[in-house]
Design a protein that fits this description.
This protein has 18 helices and 13 strands. The protein is elongated and about 85 Å long. It has three domains: 216 residues, HUPs (Rossmann fold); 78 residues, Tyrosyl-Transfer RNA Synthetase, CATH 1.10.240.10; 73 residues, Roll (Structural Genomics Hypothetical 15.5 Kd Protein In mrcA-pckA Intergenic Region, Chain A).
């Protein structure tokens, strides 16, 4: 018998950052019944391990699963060992290439290792839908297909747009939503979590549960996290992502590149700050009491500490302060050793040392004020560097490239 917080308190905590709760009245009823009986809700999050690495976009729904877990409910982390080989058609303009069992198993292992940076390993129920979907007989699969109408399936935006564009749809893709819906039957989920683009699949789960005589789950959708470009969904293929296993300094630099406006969505979806705290921070920035860069540094620190620990987050923050605000070299600036020789033009050396793609690009960088020697800006594209005697100097090329040059 779990000891749950009052329903209104649970609702306030769980609504944060949520796009939709379908239907919300039913969700309240489930929470009230859970409080009355002391029985935790079973909350399902299904993930298909189609790639080995997770980024911050993936963690939005995982964090919501953790919120349920914090309140004493049962977190079900469902690995799509079977459905990953089928391929989710959501958002796809063409049929996905199938994955092998070996690829799926390898990805699933790294998914779990990374997911437990957010979820409590001891309190998470981990299941794999290959354990039951792989055992369905041909008759059982046909019976599952008979429980949903083709016309309803083709109302789905992905399928509708592909049909209108004369793009092929394979029959197995029509089964994908039914398979993930059957997962909800198998695990007896009370709530299923997913991104807004998964709404169709989550709602089919409700219908298939009813068809099998089970109580219907509530669908809870989360907004899709916009990537570093501020325009498109965070994605590794679009190179606008922040990987949760990336080095803390790399994560910090990437997070500091988001726009001031965008950081509030990140605060909402990637931190446990409540709405009142986020509103207060916004007001402080608007009034000029808190510089936007400081608010963003606080955000980056909180996110990184969650994955790498407080010490690593502080080190990354201090390094950013040193390099980008105090314009000092990073502690681990690489060293370039240059042999003694005749003086050379700086632009040529920048290209030679791979600090610029070409000599002309190096000259452009100098003209734009992007080059410093020992913290003094270089404006002369004709600048010569004396390499005839031993010396050492700090060179900055662009915003992020620092090197210590040793001439000997």
């Amino acid at each position: 018998m779990a000891n749950f917080k009052p329903v209104e308190e649970q609702l306030a905590y769980l609504r944060k950052g949520v796009a939709e709760i379908i239907p919300e009245a039913e969700f309240r009823t489930k929470l009230e019944q859970s409080l009355k009986t002391g029985k935790p809700l079973r909350v399902k999050l299904g993930v298909d391990p189609t790639a080995p690495d997770l980024h911050l976009g993936h963690t939005v729904v995982m964090r919501k699963l953790k919120h349920f877990q914090d309140l004493g409910h049962t977190a079900i982390f469902l690995i799509g060992g079977f459905t990953a080989m089928v391929g989710d058609p959501t958002g796809q303009s063409e049929t996905r290439p199938p994955l092998t069992r070996e690829q799926v198993d390898a990805n699933a292992k790294t998914y779990l290792d990374q997911a437990f940076r957010i979820l409590d390993r001891e309190k998470t129920e981990v299941v794999n839908n290959a354990d039951w979907l792989g055992k369905l007989t041909s008759i059982e699969m046909i019976q599952l297909g008979a429980k949903y109408r083709l016309a309803r399936m083709l109302e789905r935006e992905d399928f509708r747009s592909r049909l209108s564009a004369n793009q092929p749809i394979s029959v197995h893709e029509l089964f994908y939503p039914l398979l993930v819906a059957y997962d909800s039957v198998e695990v007896n989920s009370d709530v299923e979590l997913g991104a807004t683009e998964q709404k169709f699949n989550l709602l089919i789960g409700r219908e298939i549960q009813r068809e099998y005589g089970k109580p219907q789950q509530v669908a809870m959708t989360m907004p899709i996290l916009v990537g570093l470009d501020g325009e498109r969904k965070m994605s590794k293929s679009l190179n606008n992502y922040v990987g949760i296993t990336e080095a803390p300094q790399e994560m910090f630099g990437k997070l500091m590149s988001i726009s001031d406006a965008q950081m509030w969505l990140y605060y909402e979806l990637l931190t446990d700050f409540d709405e009142r705290t986020i509103t207060r921070l916004k007001e402080e920035v608007r009034n000029g009491d808190l510089p936007p860069i400081d608010a963003k540094m606080r955000l980056a620190h909180i996110i990184i500490a969650g994955f790498h620990g407080e010490a690593a987050a502080k080190k990354a923050s201090d390094e950013f302060q040193r390099v980008f605000r105090d314009r000092q070299a990073p502690e681990d600036a690489p060293v370039i050793t240059q042999a003694l020789s005749e003086p050379k033009r700086l632009s040529a050396l920048l290209a030679e040392w791979k600090l610029a793609p070409s000599r002309s690009e190096a000259e452009r960088l100098i003209k734009q004020g992007g080059v410093e020697i020992d913290n003094a800006r270089v404006d002369d594209v004709q600048r010569q560097i004396d390499l005839s005697k031993p010396s050492e100097f700090l060179l900055r090329a662009g915003k992020k490239k620092f090197v210590r040059v040793v001439v000997k």
